[in-house]
Amino acid sequence: MSEAAWVLTAGFLVLLLLGLPIVFALGLSSLIALWLLDIDLVVMAQRIIAGTQSFPLLAIPGFILSGDLMTRGGLSTRLVQVAEPLVRHVRGGLGMVSVLASMFFACISGSAPATTATVGSIMIPEMTRRGYSKRFATALAVCVGPIGQIIPPSIPFIVWGVISETSITRLFLAGVIPGVFCGMGYMGACYLSARAGNLPTLPRATLAELLQAIGRGKWALFAPVLILGGIYGGIFTPTEASIVAVIYGLVVGLFIYRGLEARGLAALVLKSMKTTAIVMFIIAVASLFGWLLAYEQVPDRIVALILSLSDNRLLILLMLNAVLLLLGAFMDNLACMIILGGLLLKLGQQMGLDPVQLGAIVVINFAVGMETPPFGYSLFVGSAISGLRIEEISKGMLPFFLVDMAMLLLVTYVPWATLWLGRLVVG
Amino acid sequence: MFKLLDGLSHGLARVTGGAVVLLAAALVAALAVSIFFRYVVGRALSWPEEISLMLFAWMTLLSGSLGVRENFHVRLTLLTDRLPPRAAQALEILSTLGVALFGLMLIYSGADLLARTMEHLTPTLRLSLDWVNWSAPVCGALILVHALARLAGAIRPPRKERP
To answer: How much is the pTM?
Structure first.
């Protein structure tokens, strides 16, 4: 490898370990590579700006803002309240309420930490009050987080769609079956844990209670119909759908549920835009970094190396999962995805993997990384809400982690699970 | 020196924050108009896409610069957390210097880009590309100021209270 290629790989890792923020580790290693390769410095500004000039990426600020508006506006609370009368009477029912609520919430939000925050802040106190252990309640709230970005809309799927030039609608649909599978699996795990721990069961909700919850939550329940129905019906592009969601969240939050106040809006928008900045600034600078990687043909070399190690497809896929899981556990998942995008695409091409399925493998592995120690945002959020230490929460996660592994095997080895719905709806 | 730099950094961050909120509002408005025209009026407009991408470049680069002051950019602290405080502080100074260097180079690079694309126009609205390209040197300058303020703060004798 050339000196510049070493700077972009080993040099980048060193900068990262020295504690430089990812975005500046990307930027500085790119600067050194530009200098070594004697490339005009103007490329830096050019590529960084070009990295932002993508219409589909506009869905990121859109969905982050709409998620924040709907959470603050009171829509998410109503979704949890609809989930409760549906399953609370089953053994382990309150755990299932957490799972179901996160699946509802996932249909309006594309972020794992936001899902854990929303569901956890309501359900952790509720579950502990009813006799569940705090460890179980928190571990569950942490684990349901990733469902938020597996079930569409999903910010990582948008990013992957842009990197791989794949249809975001197809990618969204690829997340549905794995997401529902994961939710069902978690509910099964709740049932078994409740049987083993002999947990209390709540009385069945009356029809009147259920209807009342649905009546209160109807505006919240309509949000996913509008957003997802619009995308799958081919009416809106994902970017347009995110803007429709912003306006819907604003109107419902301001005038119907009244969780929003006009006075606090600017602060809320600024907060959402800072969340967006974390992702988008990395995307912008990584566009320079990725350009240099491709210029130096680094992805090709690494793929050749991997394929020279083994030509067993099953084995390579298993290794891919292991590496992605491990990376996801240590690094910010969107940053990983952007940095490794070129490499993963090359590998997928060489192996004849459908880019939609490859996207699902990548996104879902990294989604699971959101709940795994040491570096999982959902885990941090869960720990902040419950006050439990990361180690303590991790111990409670085992049954759910097993479900995650089953989901990953499904996604990796059964193409049908991620491709069928896309073919059915989009054609 | 620290007071001056920190004041400047603080003031610029406030202005940047306000600008980001306005940009976001304009972005939502532009796209909402586009959606309204496409589905209600039945006419597809082409300017909202162009405008919204210009706003997006500014929004990303401006809000990204805020991360330097507020330290919200994601980093790995696996190693640095385990270092003795002295070494950790030295590394912090070093990495802030790196961030300042990035800002400085972005100013140069952005100025160069501006000089070369002066006469280029956007396809639909025939606006000068300068409108987008100014975002790079401005972002570079903001990053430089915030990083220098952090450096000045880090070099000062340690304060009693730490946020």
So the answer is: 0.91
